[in-house]
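Recall from the previous lesson that a structure prediction takes nothing but the amino acid sequence as input. Here we apply that procedure to Tripartite tricarboxylate transporter substrate binding protein from [Clostridium] citroniae WAL-19142. The sequence below is the only information supplied.
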Amino acid sequence: MKKRIMAVTLAAVMAVSMAGCAGSKPAGTKAAETKAASNEGSSQKADTADKDTADKDAAGTEAAGAGKADDAGAVKEGAEDKGQTDFPKKPIQIICPVKAGGDTDYNTRVIAQYLSKYLDVNVVVTNVEGGATILGMQQVLDGEPDGYTMVINGLDAYIPNMMGTTDITIDSFKTVGIPLFDNTTVLVANKASGYESIKDVVERTQAAPGTIEYGMKIGAANQVYGIAMNQEWGAQFKPMDIGNNAAKMTALLGQQTDTAVLAYALAKDYFATGEFQALCLLGSEKNELLADVPLPSEYGLKDIDCSKWFWLGVHPDTPDEVVDILSDALEQVTEDPEFVKTMEDNYLTVRYIAKKDAQDYADQFYQDTLVPYKDEFLSTSSK
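The prediction returns the following tokens.
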């Protein structure tokens, strides 16, 4: 019995011992697992550290790239600024959209001469005649918007648009300015005609309508002037398409026309010799430089403003900074005593109107002087 109890007790102890062995691991295995866990944690920390380092490197690279981009932008901006301040770096061309030899051509060449002085580059004049000044204007619009090609024009710039042959006007460009005014448009007759005054001429046209000829150029502003004289004075001039100013002077000398309008300076030699007679000044006010030439109002007739101005413009996409440089130089020209004297010797008035103000002036002048006679102008031009 005693042996049996001991056997049972021994079996129980062994069972407990085996159960303990089954529920636990050997010390070596546990140490290995602890070491493995430790290594895994270290590996995770290392991975995290590597990731942080990579992120910092990437951020640094990105920042460096951004810095380089900023530097590149600054360099580019600096280059652009330098390019603007360097303007002009080569010769500039002024397109004169009429034939050489007239007052517009002469005045353009004088303006170009003095612009060269203040822009420190050559400024050359190129005559591009045709299409009632449109060919020259179109050439500028077809060119580069860099300020190296300008165009000069005046009231004639509106005529083709008024006729419906083009959309181009002064408003198609960026205006540089108007530096010069010509209040010397005179109605001229050959002295041999025997006319005593503008009133005498008007009365003769009324007595015999269509017998006294008025020489002009179809499609030009001086065609409108003839219409204005007939309407405002009750005159009956017979219009004759002669051509440009040189052709009109030739016709007057040969008595192939009775009258024509000219800039006084163009015919001053013939006034001096007595071959031509200035019947009246076609302007809104007296010109002190032409004190002996009467206004129509001095004979009881309405004054008709046929004065001229000379406008310069560039391609509409030309940078404003470039337009400013050109406009400032043009203003300096008008302040040059030698330029002023040269122009006054030709009875012209030097006065500067810049950019948008000049464009507004031109548009208003067109509305006041051409638009009132548009319907008759279109009807006579189409015949």
